[in-house]
Amino acid sequence: MKQAVILAGGEGQRLRPFTANRPKVMLFIAGKPILQYVVEALAQNGIRNLVIVIGYRREEVFDYMGSGERFGVDITYATQEKQLGTAHALAQAKDVTEDEFLVLPGDNLIEADAIAQFVAVKPEAVLVKRVDNPARYGVVTIDKGVVKDIVEKPKEAKSNVASTGIYAFTQQIYDFIAPELDIPDVLNNMIAQGKQLRAQETDGTWLDVAYPWDILSLNDAVLRQIQAKLEGIIETGVSVKGLVSVGKGTLIRSNSYIVGPVVIGDNCDIGPNVCLLPATSVGDNVVISPFTEIKNSVIGSDVNIGTGCIIQDSVIDRGCVIKGHFTACSGEADVKVDDEHHMVNIGAMLGEGCSLGNSVIAQPGVIVGNHSQVQALKLISGRLPDRSLVV
Amino acid sequence: MCGIIGYIGDKSAQPILLNCLKRLEYRGYDSCGIAVAAGSLEVYKDAVRVEELARVAPQLNGTVGIGHTRWATHGEPSQVNAHPHLDCSGKIAVVHNGVINNFQRLKRQLTAEGHNFVSETDTEVISHLIEKYYAGNLEKAVEAALRDVDGSYAIIVLMAGEPKLVAARKDSPLIIGVSDRENFIASDVPAILDYTSRVIYLEEGDIGVVTKDNIKIRRHGTKVVGKEHKVLWSVEDAQKAGYEHFMLKEIHEQPRVIRDTLGGYISAAEPETKLVMMTEANLENMLVVACGTAYHAALVGKYIVGELVGIPVRTEIACEFTYCHQIPAGTAAIVITQSGETADTLKAMKRLKEAGCRVVAITNVVGSTASRIADQTIYTRAGPEISVAATKSFTAQLMVLYWLALSYSRVDIRRVDSLTMGLRQLPEKVQQVLDNEDKIRQYADYLSRYENVFFISRGINFPVALEGALKLKEISYIHAEGYAAGELKHGPFALLGASTPVIAIVARDNTYETMLTNIKEVKARGSPLMALAEEGDEAIEELADLVITVPRVDAIFSPVVNTVALQLLAYYTAKQRGCPIDFPRNLAKSVTVE
Known about the structure:
The structure holds two protein chains of two kinds. Chain A has five helices and 41 strands. By secondary structure, chain A is mainly beta. In chain A, a hairpin with a 2-residue loop joins strand 2 (28-29) and strand 3 (32-33). The termini of chain A are far apart. Chain B is built from 18 helices and 25 strands. In chain B, helix 7 (254-266) runs parallel beside helix 12 (392-406) and helix 15 runs parallel beside helix 18 (558-576).
C-alpha cells in the first residue's frame, strides 16, 4: 500500500462553536490539528502519497497542510462541494487513486502504531478496535476474520468491536458507491453481493472527538507522549517539571511554575508568577498575565488572558481576550447537545474571538458562541449563541 | 522585468529549464524560450506562456541550457522578439533582463560592421557584441561586450561547444543556485527551490562562469569567492497548495504573516532587530520612498508615525523622486520594496545615500539589492509572494511600520502596551475578515457588473481607498479610482450616477461624522453605495446599499482589516469576470526597469 485517501470535509456540527469556522479535522489537540496526527501516522508507516478530500472551510486545511512538504508527504486535494456522505466524499478522489489505497477519516486521532500492520493488509479490509462504548460507532460483526455486517450507531450493540473508519480498498469499491451513502452502507451492499471484506484488529491509539469536551480528554491522552523541548527564553526562577515543550520566541517570566505535560507554542508571553498545570496546551502568540492558574485546558492561538484568572478543564478558542480575574472552575454539569443530555465534569468552552470583561465567572459547562462579548462582573452559564452580548 | 534561467549539469536541461521558467512567470509572461547546447545550439521560442511552450516544444538534447520569460520593453511580444537571441553564426545565445540604453547606436554600428539583426529588441546587440569580441575565450568576450553597453542587465550566455554558462549583472537581479554536479543561474530564488536551497547572490558588475562542478566569479577584474547563503523559503511557499490562485492563497496567509512578522519584533523575548533610527533622540522628520502597493503602505505609515511619534513624514513615489531636488542631508529615510529589486526604488536609494541620508530598507527578499544598499534592512516575513497583485507583502510592511513607530523611545509606554496587545489580536481579526468570505463574494458578484468604481475614505484609511482601487483595477480590469472623500467634490462628482458605484471605507475615528456626510452626498447623486464598516455600526447599515462588516479594532489598525476585505472583494470580482488573476495582462511582479 503506497497511497491513502483522508476524508477531511466533515463539518462536526456537534462540536460547535469550535467548528463554525474550521472543519473538524482542524481542531487543535496538544498544539497540532487532528489531521496532522493522521498524516504523520501515515508518513511513519511509509505512506507518503496522500489524497485529502476537503469541503467545509477547506482554506483552513490548505493554509496549514499546504502541499505536504513540511510533513514529508505529497498531498493532492480533491474537493467535495456538498457534504453528502462519506462514500460520496471518497468518490471525489476516484480520478487520483491507485489500484490499492487506504481510506481514513481525518477527524479521528491516530498514532502510527494503530495502522502499523494494517498498511500491509490485503484489500478489501476494515480496521476494527474493541471499545467501551461501541454504540457511538459502527459495530462490526466478524466471523473468522471476515465481516458479516456493519451496523451504524446501534441502539444495542451486539459486540464491542467498532469500525475505526479506516479501510483498505481497491478500485472496485467505486462500483458500489452511490451518492448520499456513507461508506458502511456501501460495504454492506458489497457484502450482500458476495464480496469479501476482511477485518483486522488494532490496539493502537485511535481517539474520536464527538463533543466539545472530548477535546480535553484527547489533549490529555496525547500530551503524555510529547517530546520535551525548551526554546525561547525561560527567565530565572521558573520551575519546569515533567514533560514541557516551549516554542521559539516565547518568554516565560520569573516565578512561573509549569508542571507537564504542558505544550506552549511560539512567541508567547507568560508570567511572571503564572501556574500552568497538567495537562495544558497553549497555542502561538498567547499572553498569560501574572497570577493566573491554568489546569487541564486547551488555549488557542492569539489568546490574551489577564491577571488572576483560574481556568480549569476548559477550552479557550483562538483570539479570545479575557480580562483579569476570570474564573472557570471545573464542576459537574448537565450539557445539552442536539437534544441529548450529557453529564460532564468541565469548566468553560469559549468559542473564538470572545471578549470577556473583568471578573467574569463561568459556571461549569458553559458553552460560549464565537465572537461573544461579556461585560465585567457577569455570571455566564448554559449555552450562548454566536455573537452573544452579555450586559 | 523578465525572468532568466540557466542550467548546467548531468540531467537533460529542457524539462528543468521549463519548470524553472514556470516559477519565474510572475516576472513576465508575454513570450518565452529556451536554448540548449549539445554539440550545436538549439533554440525554441514563441510568444506564448511557458505551459504552452512546454507542450509544443520539440525535444532539445543537451545538459546545458538557458531560458527566458519575457515582459516586453523593446519590441512587441512575438516569436522573433522572444529570447534567447543569437549572433550571426547561431552559436552564441543570450537571455537578458533589463534595458540597454545605447542599443540603437550599437545596432547601427554593428550593422555597419556586417552583423545581421533579426529582432527589434535591445538584447540582440549583446549577442552580436559577444560574437564580435570572441577570440577563443567566452568570458573575456562577454566582459568586452559589456564594456560597450550602457544600461541595466542580468544576462546568461551560452555558446555551442563551450560546456559552461557565463552570467553578468548590473542593476538587475541574478543569483547562482549551487548544487552537486549541477548548478543554476536565475533571476530569483523561487525559480530554483525545487532543486537547491544553496544560493550565491551576484553583486553589481560581477561576471560569473559556471560549470557543472565549479563557480568562478570576477568582480571588477578580480577573482572573488561568492558567499553561499542557505535559503529559508521552501518549495512549499512557492506552490498553490490547493488554492485556485496564488492571490487567494496569499490573502489567506495573512494571519500567519502578521504573527511571523511581529514574532521577531514585539515578542517579549528580546526583539531580534533593534532599529537604530528609532532610538535617536534627534529624529525630526522622516522620508519614505516606495512604488505601487508599497507606496500605499508608506502612506499609511505616514499616519502611523505621525500619530505615535509626532514627527512630520514625507512620502515620495520612487519614480518621481528622481525629479525632486531637495534632500536635506542626514534625513532619516525608509524605502519599502517587496522584491528589493524595484528599479525606481533602488535609484532613489542611491540618490539618498549620495545625499548623506541614513537609509533603512523594508523588504521581503533576503540578499536583495535593496538590502545591500541600505544601512539597515528590516525583513518582512511574508514568504515569497508569487501573485502579481501584492497582498500579504502590504500587510507585512504595515506590521513593520507599526513596530517601527512603537519602538520609538518617546512613545508613551501605556500606549505601547495597549497597542502591542492590539497587534497581537490582529491575526484573529484578519481571520474574521477571511471567515466573512462568502458575503464578500456575493458583493463581488454585484460589483463585477460595473465598469467604473470609486473608493473613498479619510485619514489613515485614505491610502486604503487607493489600495482597494489598485487591487480592483489591476486584476479585474474595472476602472477604479481611490479618492480622499473630501476631494470627490472637486471634480469626480461629475462622474457619479447609477452606473458608478462608490465604495466608502468608514472607520470609527475622528473622520466618522464627516464620512457620513460624504456618503449622504454620494447617495444624493444616485450612486450605488457599498460601505466597509465596523460591525455593529447601525448608522451605516441604514445609509449604505451594501455593507461589508469588519471586526472592531483600534482605529490605527483599521487599514489592516479593511485592506484584507478589499483584497477579497477585488479577487472575487476578478474571478466573477473570468480574469487571469495571478497573471493580469501587461503586468509583472517585480518592476526591475524604470
